[in-house]
Amino acid sequence: MLKPKTEKKLKSANVKHRAYKFALKVMELIDSLPNKKAYWSLGDQLLRSATSVGANLVEATGALTKKDFLNFYSIALKSANETKFWLALIRDSEKGDKKLAQALLDEIQEISKMIGASILTLKGKRSKNIEKIKSFKF
Prior knowledge:
By secondary structure, the chain is mostly helical.
């Protein structure tokens, strides 16, 4: 049985690892988009928001205060929510890999729940109902 501190470290590493793997899969999706002006812009926005999730989680590890740490996690959650929007647009467009877009939407939803749960825990407001996390689903 792991000690609570060890479990927290593993969960934190897990969300960072998942965000990293997620960003790599987003890059694959972007590379599969049509070479058209609308998709260039959409792909650029998606890449920025998707990579921002992991980058802010990593940045949080260097935070000097709890407030600073929470701020980075909050930004990561906002980036995850923005990423959902871009992925939903690709999924619902006439071009692009709909199955991969949906799989990525499912994964970012899970990553969002993990980030949101961490935020609630750090704020001391951990709820039994994880669905109340400020995260939306497409």
